[in-house]
Design brief:
By secondary structure, the chain is mostly beta strands. The protein contains 1 helix and 7 strands; from the N terminus they run ββββββαβ.
Length: about 80
Amino acid sequence: MAKTMVTVVENGPNLVSGIGTYTDATGNEQSSFNAEKPVQMVALCRCGGSSNKPFCDGTHKENGFQAPGVKIAIESDN
């Protein structure tokens, strides 16, 4: 059973870990694996200010975004 973790960072993005690939808006499969950082994670923008939506580019630090955080674990058979 695979475990996917969604961490809603206080005053920051949604971090989704435990996934290897995802499908983008145009239907293309993308890898969430970053060779420079061997962690399978995607950071999704919550503040609405990223120039790389839906991904976080750190703009929340500049625009004063504030929101609570929480962790969510999802178990699946996939």
